[in-house]
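Entry for oxa(dethia)-CoA complex. Fields follow.
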Amino acid sequence: MYSRIIGTGSYLPKKIVTNKDLEKFVDTNDEWIVSRSGIKQRHMAGDDEVTSDLAQKAAQEAIEQAGLNNSEIDLIIVATTTPDMVFPSTACIVQSKLKIPSCPAFDVQAVCSGFVYALNIADLFIKSGQAKNVLIVGAEIYSRILDWTDRTTCVLFGDGAGAVVLSRSDSPGILKTSIHADGALHKHLCVPGWVRGGEVVGSPMVQMDGGIVFKFAVKVFEETALELLNDSGKTVEDLDWFIPHQANIRIMESTAKKLKLPLEKLIATVDHHGNTSAASIPLAFDEAVRDGRLKKGDLMLLAGVGGGFTWGGALLEF
Ligand code: UT7
């Protein structure tokens, strides 16, 4: 028994903030942001939008593309670092907004690796016979946890949501998934604040040692790719597409170079939505499905890395 992605969807908030817009209130410039990260613009949620709103829109598109009714979803996993509330989970709120009848629903907190963690979990649920149609959503509103006076972080992130429906199938499908974490590195990328007695203690804003994260990301993207390919008896040459977490074009291109993967096989969308954390892989996936690049039967590698540090990936046939 396999699990296969049978539908994808995405949603980006209407408001676009360009690098030129940022120049007006951040000590930065378009040339620096583009040359260091490849990012040209990001989307920003409206004051009246919460993460579950973004998730709902992406999810509804994915369910429709899958040709399913909402009532046929039997597990909901939302990967997010920016939930609507402390509790309940954003997945439960999405369930209510989509009017999906009683089924398990929970959030996964693995920061920018959240989507590949959720895919790994959903694959196991399907292979164990506990679920048939799983809705997986990566959704984030990072604009609310950015310190807009910290130019080393605020220019890099954006808001958005991406979703897939993963379903039971007789043919592949997901060939292999892998997830990892090294909590010893948690201080290098974190939002170190928490709530105590109605007050936020510590900083509720993103803090990042960019250089350390950059080097770590290139290292584990390569390791994850080789682990998944070797375990599946495949080679880099067999790959049709590489869809990594969209944080920085230089990280993606350095990884492709190390793997000797032609850049034409790299799906990169970071230029127009920035780093959307757990949403970035399904956003890029959906864009490439809708513009016709991803075809049925294509072999693709997904890879994520983020706070924790966490990392992992999936090798799959579309
Ligand atoms: O999603 C999870 C993972 N996150 C990532 O993957 C991010 C990983 N890291 C990166 O993408 C890169 O390290 C950054 C884009 C964050 C930074 O690029 P860099 O090439 O490592 O630049 P840097 O941090 O070494 O900074 C170079 C210079 C510094 O000035 P000095 O000290 O050389 O005078 C910074 O102060 O650039 C300066 N700088 C800026 N200048 C204009 C830092 N941020 C900015 C800015 N605008 N926004």
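NOTE: DSSP finds ten helices and 15 strands in the chain.
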